[in-house]
Design goal:
Blueprint: E1 4-9, E2 12-17, H1 28-44, E3 49-54, E4 58-60, H2 65-68, H3 73-91, E5 96-101, E6 104-106, H4 108-115, E7 118-122, E8 126-128, H5 142-150, H6 152-161, E9 164-166, H7 167-173, E10 178-180, H8 182-197, H9 201-214, H10 219-232, H11 237-247
Parallel strand pairs: 2-3, 3-5, 4-6, 5-7, 6-8, 7-10
Antiparallel strand pairs: 1-2, 8-9
Helix pairs in contact: 1-3, 3-4, 4-5, 5-6, 9-10
The structure holds acetoacetyl-coenzyme A.
C-alpha cells in the first residue's frame, strides 16, 4: 500500500494515513486504499477496536484540492459519493474506531474523524471545515455528522466561518472527547483501545448499532429498539460469562 500503513501495537491495530508531502490530503487514490483496508478488516472480524491517525504534522488536511480543482460537476459528485461510501463503511464497521487527531484535521480530514466512534486530539491539532473559503461546502459528511454530533447552532459556526479551532476549543464544542500532549496521544489511544478490547465483542457491537440506529429514530422508537437489543444479549455465552464473573468475583474472559 502506498498511502496507508497498518501496525499492531500491543495487539491493537493502528491505521496511519501516510501522504505527508500533501499533509495526508485525501485524493481518490488514498480513499480507495483506505476502502481496501476497511473491506479486509470487515472480512477478517479480527479487531474489536481500531485506531486511525495521520503521519507527520497533519491528521488529514482535507480532500485533495489539487485534484478537486480539475473536477467538473460529475467528477465532484463521484468524489463525494466515494468519500461517503468509504466513511459509511468506517462508521458502520464491526469494530470501534478511535481517531487520534495528531495535527491538522480539516475539511475531509475532520469528516474522517467524525465518521469514527471516538476522537482524541493532541494539543497541536487544529480542526475545522474550511470548505467555504474554497467556494465549496463539506462533501464527505461534515454538514450532516457535525450537526448531529454538536447540534445545528454549533455546527453552523464551524461550517459558515470556515475557521480553524484549537483542540481545546474543539473539546468544548464536543467535537473531540479528550485532548492530550502530543507525546501522550498514542499512549492514551492505546489505553482506551485496551479497555474497549477487554469487553465483550457482541455487547460492543450491539451497543454501537443501538446508538447509531437510535439517531435515526424518535426517542420513543429508540427506547423500543434498546429494549430489543438489550434483551437479545440474554442467554448468550458473553453475558453468561460477564454476569457470572461478577457474581464469582473474578475478571470475565471475553
Ligand atoms: N489538498 C492538497 N494539498 C494540500 C492540502 C489539501 N487539502 N493541504 C495541504 N496540502 C499541501 C500543500 O499544497 C503543500 O504542498 P507543496 O509543498 O507542494 O506546496 C503541502 O501540503 C504543505 O502544506 P502547506 O505548505 O500549506 O503547510 P502549512 O503548514 O503552511 O499550512 C494548512 C497547513 C493550514 C493545513 C494548509 O496546508 C491548508 O490550508 N491546507 C488546506 C486545508 C483545506 O482547505 N482543507 C479542506 C479541503 S476541501 C475538502 O476537504 C472538501 C470535502 O469536504 C470533501
Amino acid at each position: 500500500m502506498k498511502y496507508i500503513k497498518q501496525e499492531l501495537t500491543e495487539g491493537i491495530l493502528t491505521i496511519t494515513i501516510q501522504r505527508p508531502e500533501a499533509l495526508n490530503a485525501l485524493s481518490a487514490e488514498v480513499l480507495r486504499e483506505l476502502e481496501e483496508v476497511l473491506d479486509s478488516l470487515s472480512k477478517s472480524s479480527e479487531h474489536k477496536v481500531v485506531l486511525i491517525t495521520g503521519d507527520g504534522k497533519a491528521f488529514v488536511a482535507g480532500a485533495d484540492i489539487a485534484s478537486m480543482s480539475t473536477y467538473n460537476e460529475k467528477a465532484a459528485l463521484e468524489f463525494s459519493q466515494l468519500g461517503h461510501r468509504v466513511f459509511e463503511k468506517l462508521e458502520n464497521a464491526d469494530y470501534i474506531s478511535i481517531a487520534l487527531v495528531n495535527g491538522f484535521s480539516l475539511g475531509g480530514g475532520l469528516e474522517l474523524a467524525l465518521a469514527c466512534d471516538i476522537r482524541y486530539a493532541s494539543t497541536k491539532a487544529k480542526l475545522g471545515l474550511p470548505e467555504v473559503s474554497l467556494g465549496l461546502i463539506p462533501g464527505f459528511g461534515g454538514t450532516q455528522r457535525l450537526a448531529r454530533l454538536i447540534g445545528v447552532g454549533a455546527a453552523s459556526e464551524w461550517v459558515y466561518s470556515g475557521e480553524m479551532f484549537t483542540a481545546e476549543q474543539a473539546k468544548s464544542f464536543g467535537v473531540v472527547n479528550q485532548v492530550y500532549e502530543p507525546e501522550d496521544l498514542l499512549k492514551e489511544g492505546l489505553r482506551l483501545a485496551a479497555s474497549i478490547n477487554s469487553r465483550g465483542r457482541l455487547a460492543l457491537m450491539t451497543a454501537k448499532k443501538t446508538i447509531r440506529s437510535g439517531l435515526n429514530h424518535t426517542l420513543s422508537e429508540g427506547l423500543r429498539l434498546e429494549e430489543q437489543k438489550f434483551s437479545s444479549l440474554f442467554g448468550k455465552d458473553e453475558s453468561k460469562e460477564g454476569m457470572g464473573a461478577f457474581l464469582e468475583k473474578r475478571k470475565p474472559q471475553f
